[in-house]
């Protein structure tokens, strides 16, 4: 696993690289990281990295613009953590599926917690299913929602071909991380970080599809979604 760190401030760059070095020595996770002082240095190496730790205020283009370019090309297959002195942009970062939003001056403990969550989610973000006689390991980070269709479940991806497999939605719910998925209807399980907007009648997903919300589940969904937002962005 490789991390790209981008910050034009040499002081801030050293603070974060020192924190990454400390985390690398203390944690059980194996990773490499490279530091860049401009986005132009990393733009041709995007495929090489899994996690991007970005500053917002950069001379050639701001971090949000770079994050949009990264997201437009790779969707949720790349993870973004913002570290910035501009807390007012936090809600703008929702559009690029930001994993965590940290404010300068950096609290290393908060970065360590974000990395712990990232690695734990990465190792827990696979699901083995059987579809058309084949065993398939799916990446849950690419899943938008699951839909129950009789005795089968439709797994809908943000990009790529959907798959069907035999299961009950109640059994599937027990296999998924409750901090990532929620059953909004007797037939639908949605992934929190793929929700673009919602009302008490429907949820607009990131890919433009709309999911019905059960009136009985709406209040609990709002509560759990708020918890997700607080964990991820605040």
How would you characterize this protein structure?
The protein is an alpha/beta fold. The chain has two domains: 2-123, Rossmann fold, CATH 3.40.50; 126-233, OB fold (Dihydrolipoamide Acetyltransferase, E2P). The protein contains five helices and 15 strands. The strands form four sheets. A five-stranded parallel beta sheet has the order 2-1-3-4-5. Strands 10-9-8-12-11 form a five-stranded antiparallel beta sheet. Strands 13-14-15 form a three-stranded antiparallel beta sheet, with no helix packed on it. Strand 6 (126-131) and strand 7 (134-139) form a beta hairpin. The longest helix has 19 residues, at 215-233. The two termini are 25 Å apart.
Q: Record the strand order, biggest sheet.
A: 2-1-3-4-5
Which structural class is indicated by helix and strand composition?
alpha/beta
Count of individual domains:
2
Question: What Rg, in angstroms, do the CA atoms define?
Answer: 19 Å
Mean pLDDT: 90
Specify the overall morphology: globular
Report how far the terminal alpha carbons are from each other.
25 Å
> What percentage of residues falls in helices of 4 or more residues?
25-40%
Strand and helix order: EHEEHEEHEEEEEHEEEEEH
CATH topology of the largest domain: Rossmann fold
Helix count, DSSP H or I runs of 4 or more residues: 5
Residue runs with pLDDT of under 50 for 5 or more positions: none
> How much beta, percentage-wise?
25-35%
Indicate the CATH architecture of the largest domain: 3-Layer(aba) Sandwich
Largest beta-sheet details? 5 strands, parallel
Quickly name the level 1 CATH class of the largest domain: Alpha Beta
How many strands?
15
Q: What's the CATH superfamily of the largest domain, by name?
A: Response regulator
């Amino acid at each position: 696993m490789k991390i790209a760190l981008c910050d034009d401030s040499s002081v801030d760059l050293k603070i974060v690289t020192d924190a990454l070095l400390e985390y690398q020595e203390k944690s059980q996770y194996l990773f490499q990281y490279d530091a860049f002082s401009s986005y132009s240095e990393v733009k041709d190496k995007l495929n090489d990295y899994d996690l991007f730790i970005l500053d917002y205020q950069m001379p050639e283009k701001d971090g949000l613009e770079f994050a949009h370019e990264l997201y437009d090309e790779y969707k949720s297959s790349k993870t973004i953590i913002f570290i910035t002195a501009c807390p007012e942009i936090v809600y703008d970062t929702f559009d690029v599926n930001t994993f965590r939003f940290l404010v300068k001056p950096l609290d290393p403990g908060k970065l360590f917690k974000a990395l712990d969550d990232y690695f734990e989610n990465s190792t827990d973000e696979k699901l083995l299913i059987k579809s058309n006689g084949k065993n398939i390991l799916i990446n849950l980070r690419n899943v938008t929602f699951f839909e129950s269709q009789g005795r089968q479940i439709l797994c809908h991806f943000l990009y790529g071909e959907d798959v069907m497999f035999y299961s009950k939605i109640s059994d599937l719910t027990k296999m998924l991380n409750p901090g990532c998925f929620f059953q909004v209807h007797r037939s639908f399980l949605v992934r929190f970080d793929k929700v673009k907007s919602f009302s008490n009648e429907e949820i607009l997903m990131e890919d433009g599809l709309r999911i019905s919300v059960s009136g009985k589940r709406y209040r609990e969904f709002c509560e759990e979604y708020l918890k997700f937002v607080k964990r991820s962005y605040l």
